Amino acid sequence: MVIICLFFGYQKWFNYEVQALIPYISHGLLIFWLYLLFGIRRATYFLGVSEWLFGALLFAGFWNKRLGILGLSACVGVSVYLLRQDVIRASLAKATSV
Length: 98
Known about the structure:
It contains five helices and no strands. It has 98 residues and is mainly alpha-helical. The termini are far apart.
């Protein structure tokens, strides 16, 4: 899980990922404010650094269980949020195609 967080955070520094995240961030209920506050490029940097932080917290969980639980909670929260966004996006696409 730590390696996955590191790889996902690393991807946020490249233009292809910035372009891929535009619909997720601009239409996200909890993260739409990132573009307003940081702009497109810096918003994805913020997400990348956040994912690195979650990975670091997971890694620190080997020595401090509370930090590991915090990192795990953050990873699970982000995963649930993104899954929910995908379900909403799919249902909207289905509703508009009918």
